[in-house]
Amino acid sequence: MTIMTILGSPRRYGNTAQVLEWIEEALRAEGHRIDRANIWEHQIGHCKESHQCRYPQSAACGTPDDAAKLFERVLDADRVLIASPVFSWGFPAPMKALLDRFYCLSGYHQDPDHAILLEDKPIGLMMTCGGDETENYEILSRVYRNMMAFFGARELGFWLIPRATTPEALGDDVRRSAAEFAARLAAD
């Protein structure tokens, strides 16, 4: 199975990247193919709310940037894992821009009988934060559930790693939990 992972961290070797690498490692060990996109290596503009994506003759979002290529990869993947640090109780700006642009995958396009392109697409979310779980889990898990409901996607799981200070300090417990989360992502 192909699992697309989207790294939303500006730090290629930071906490989120390290945990994502452990998840990908466990998935590869089980024979899954990983297609990773580092969001900071792509030009993703903000949603302009032009509603061009709402017309059947449109080819989805009309903003000329890298989002359309990422959308194709998301749609081609069997499953998707979004990996992001917590920035101000949310996502870093480029990840937020991409998620806002997912709007064009959630409505009427070429086939009026299958309007929601992410319908039943299994999507998981892993986030790291420097704070504790109590301050972050409730709001972020609610954001995840609401996004999945809006997209018509299937929840694969939400995992928040609190008190992530440095990749070296993450420890064996987080590495084991990453393997367990990977198994959950791959399970049906």
Tell me about this structure.
This protein is α/β, with parallel strands linked by helices and about 190 residues long. The protein has a single domain, classed as Flavodoxin domain (Rossmann fold), CATH 3.40.50.360. It has helices at about 15-30, 65-75, 95-100, 135-150, 170-185, and strands at about 1-5, 35-40, 80-85, 120-130, 155-160. α1 (about 15-30) packs across α5. The mean pLDDT is about 90.
List low-pLDDT spans: none
Q: Which CATH class is shown? A: Alpha Beta
Distance between the termini: 12 Å
Shape: globular
Secondary structure tally, helices? 5
Number of domains: 1
How many individual β-strands?
A: 5
What's the mean pLDDT score? 88
The CATH level-2 architecture is identified as: 3-Layer(aba) Sandwich
Q: What is the makeup of the main sheet?
A: 5 strands, parallel
Query: What string, H for helix and E for strand, traces the elements in order?
Result: EHEHEHEHEH
The helix content is 25-40%
Task: Determine the strand fraction and express it as a percent band.
Answer: 15-25%
Short description:
This protein is of the alpha/beta class. 37% of the residues lie in helices and 18% in strands.
Give the key terms.
18% strand; 37% helix; globular; 188 residues
Write the layout of secondary structure elements.
Elements (H helix, E strand, L loop, with lengths): L1 E6 L7 H15 L3 E6 L28 H10 L2 E7 L7 H9 L20 E7 L4 H19 L2 E8 L9 H16 L2
Parallel strand pairs: 1-2, 1-3, 3-4, 4-5
